[in-house]
Amino acid sequence: MRQKKFLLPESEIPQAWYNIQAIMPNKPLPILNPATRAPLAPEDLFPIFCEECSRQELDTVHEWIPIPEPVREQYASYRCTPLVRAYELEAALGTPAHIYFKNESVSPAGSHKLNSALAQAYYAKMQGVTNITTETGAGQWGGALSYAAKKFGLECAVYMVKASFNQKPYRRSIMQTFGAAVTPSPSMSTRAGKDIITANPNDQGSLGCAISEAIELAVSTPNCKYTLGSVMNHVCLHQTVIGLEAEKQMQMAGEYPDIVIACFGGGSNFSGIAYPFMRHNILEGRKTRFIAAEPSSCPKLTKGKFEYDFGDEAGLTPLLPMYTLGHTFKPATIHAGGLRYHGAGVIMSQLMKDGYMEAQDYEQTETFRCGVLFARTEGIIPAPESCHAIASAVHEALECRRTGEAKTILFNLSGHGFVDMSAYERYMSGEMSDYDLSDEELARYIASADALNR
Amino acid sequence: MRQKKFLLPESEIPQAWYNIQAIMPNKPLPILNPATRAPLAPEDLFPIFCEECSRQELDTVHEWIPIPEPVREQYASYRCTPLVRAYELEAALGTPAHIYFKNESVSPAGSHKLNSALAQAYYAKMQGVTNITTETGAGQWGGALSYAAKKFGLECAVYMVKASFNQKPYRRSIMQTFGAAVTPSPSMSTRAGKDIITANPNDQGSLGCAISEAIELAVSTPNCKYTLGSVMNHVCLHQTVIGLEAEKQMQMAGEYPDIVIACFGGGSNFSGIAYPFMRHNILEGRKTRFIAAEPSSCPKLTKGKFEYDFGDEAGLTPLLPMYTLGHTFKPATIHAGGLRYHGAGVIMSQLMKDGYMEAQDYEQTETFRCGVLFARTEGIIPAPESCHAIASAVHEALECRRTGEAKTILFNLSGHGFVDMSAYERYMSGEMSDYDLSDEELARYIASADALNR
Prior knowledge:
The structure is a homodimer.
Chain A: E1 5-6, E2 16-18, H1 42-45, H2 51-57, E3 64-66, H3 69-75, E4 83-85, H4 87-93, E5 98-103, H5 114-126, E6 131-136, H6 140-151, E7 155-161, H7 162-167, H8 169-177, E8 181-185, H9 191-199, H10 207-220, E9 224-226, H11 233-238, H12 241-252, E10 259-263, H13 268-284, E11 289-295, H14 300-303, E12 305-310, E13 319-324, H15 346-353, E14 358-362, H16 364-378, H17 384-403, E15 408-413, H18 421-428, H19 439-453
Helix pairs in contact in A: 3-5, 4-16, 5-6, 6-8, 12-13, 16-17
């Protein structure tokens, strides 16, 4: 019987994360204080983030960062995750390519997000923090942080965009089942929320507002820290367990990837699978291609500009050197909520600029078409975000069919879609459009994109 | 680091299912033709079920039934499933017991149901069948069969109770994503459905009606067969891969279970984990306890009677010798839809009668209380059905705390609850009752239970 899954015992969970900053030919540009334009030091981040995370954020020296044993113990409830050869997807596509995927959907929270949530919760606990907080839109990160907080005995407060709070009760319930306090944002619990509610009692919230509320809670509450699920360097660092395991598992399969693919929101799952392989490109001149798959409606890498920009809509964060569509860009309301972010993480932006990675963008309906094909062949209903990685893998596999090349393609299945079935329902009923925008929104989107391309 | 998960490579997927009928001291009583009271032969089942399944149903001779290689290949997409030591649940309970669970939630359909769906779809394909059909209430079996049909190139028609079709759109969408035609029942596609709709255009359906529609479709359509997801002996046979793997994995952990637990609807997941261990009780005099965990609102084993009864509400099936609450018993509308069945499978009924297993029943809110504890400690949100097994494991582990005994407890986690979050929502908001019955229904239930106990 041909081997389909490549498994590693939990003793093979990596002992250290891989910090690609240490080997980058061009280090990332500094993060700047928006008022003074002075580069930030780790201490400048301490009021918001945990100290250890702040240090990791700016560490350009240490190639390997040890994973604390209590974090490895928590990883053991779902790691090492399987590497799977997608034989039946290959057959359906009639491609000579070998397609593999790393299945991060098996985590308690249903996605890769837990890899960093557990680390951040642990460091918070070690520092004497008692409460952690964050914002969530689609709910993947909120679910992961809720679970991680519970594991390390922390209180967890999640500000959830009010529209999502009402429209995605399943995600909300998952967070509550894991023990988090979930507050619809805007809320009356912060100055930022009160101001918005006072101005507009029916405001349905935004990720920008939820971020503001979470940060306000963190800086105004003793022993409370803020956490983020993507974009930041330390988050991407924690995700490298994905690629480190995959590297060993590809060896078990007797292969090395020609192409590594992940969907791209802020860059956390992309970093996770890419960096460990990319180090061989940087250090040994390997020629693996790295493809970030993003939505056509939020194309920061394919159509954005590399420049200093704010990480949040309101302009409260430090200035980040990144590919961005502008911090006021309003992404279309696609189902892949995790990809609706205007910018790319600082490290990825530099790597993109230096030619170590490339990007492709896909229309929403195309991603669901590929997601349904994947479900019917490989049996896992993918998260809408992950459908973008699948679309890119399908694209490359079909290119192999055209050329006859038997390339080895590896993509990251970042999460499952069991709580996104309403999106599949819309796709199958023919109600889904590529943008899911009102005409007015579409006009604004086109104008915004035009402005960027000028 | 202590080992939490015990994994087997796919090469260790069992080569054969275990047929406990071959070693039972008292064989099950025969299944009877209701008109003639004559015992049925396999041929009598051919018009409805596949021939190989019909033969397996009545096979009391062969202890091991080889698993066809194409079925094993399909099993490889999710098997062997992990055996997990529930260290954190143990710690939360303060018990000296060692608690293990077999995680069947990792299958594409999210539950153990796929173990039999793949076998039944394969045998249908081998026999030249082109269409398979079934009914579904909660949707777990329908989802599994939809996926299995797709894997073996069969058309699949699922009759879904109309109330569930409208109230559980996520389950419906999962079946459709896997490529099945899902019809709300009653429908106009069958005589049975037409009669009901003509009499009552707003009828919201019942499992009994959906069974009638699926069987009518099977017997009136060329190359179409009916399938069932529980109760039948051949279904339970296919589930024994669970226990056979668990036996090897318990050896890896250096333990042997003192207690084996599974939730109980018709008996498929109970059989699956229990039979392989129970054979050592029968053949070698081992003293492992086997506990079927059922809902208080549908207590066929703890309060039912052993007698010949119909398998369906309408009385269309052969007469089955089983523990039953009566085929017209109306179970309360608890969230664990998969446990709302009036009878127990024929083999289990005999084993229960002969003292090889026992049963416990649990109130709905108690099962969710234990399910939330499990989610917060072990990270998997369990299906409402599986919450019953967890409640029983918790009960036994607390008993160990009382007595100081370090017993080894193994339970089957039959499925995850990602598409049952509305039930958790109701539990956490305090809206859930033990029965979820109207006063009128509750009165009927009590009268019905009283009648049985007389």
